Amino acid sequence: MSENIVPSNFAAPAELIRKQIQEMIHGDVDEQKSGKADGLPTKIKGGAIYGGDILARKFSELIHEMKIGDWIRTVARFHEAKEIVNDASRMYLIPLSDTFTLFLKTDEGRISSEQVLEEGQYAYIKTDAVVCARTSVIFLTPP
To answer: Would you say which domain of life the source belongs to (predicted)?
Structure first.
């Protein structure tokens, strides 16, 4: 395992919140159903970013359960592989897809290793990365 990634398993209360967030964003991105994210997704190249008050409350609950302090949170869904720039050299990635493949990059920008996270896992990473296509993920970055 690379020193640039620390995979972990969620405790039961945090995993329940993660699943609630997962249910809120999955489905047709144009539908507005009860229990879904209350803000329409913002389309980005290769995907969408989700927001709204309901998601913000769920993020706060999740971060509280993880006991990591008040980190900046973003949830996105990617239709194609996406490079993630980790300017602070510390970031949590919380998959909302059944399986999630992450490719870590070297300082020179080359792929150095591959990490597969299963449902109920998350990772703390210290480098830039590429997330696989057709996946949803929560990014937590330092304030």
So the answer is: Eukaryota
Range(s) of the domain holding residue 76: 5-141
Amino acid identity at 18: R
Q: Specify the number of domains making up the chain.
A: 1
List, in sequence order, every residue forming a beta bridge with 88; answer none if it has no partner: none
**CATH code for position 136:** 2.60.120.10
The three-class DSSP label of residue 13 is helix
Task: Write out the H or E segment, with its range, that includes residue 91.
Answer: strand 91-95
Q: For 115-129, how does the pLDDT look when each residue is reduced to its tens digit (9 = 90+)? A: 999 889 999 999 999
Instruction: Give the predicted TM-score (pTM) of the model.
Output: 0.86
Nearest to 94 by CA among 39, 142, 137, 130: 137
Residue 99, pLDDT above cutoff 70: yes
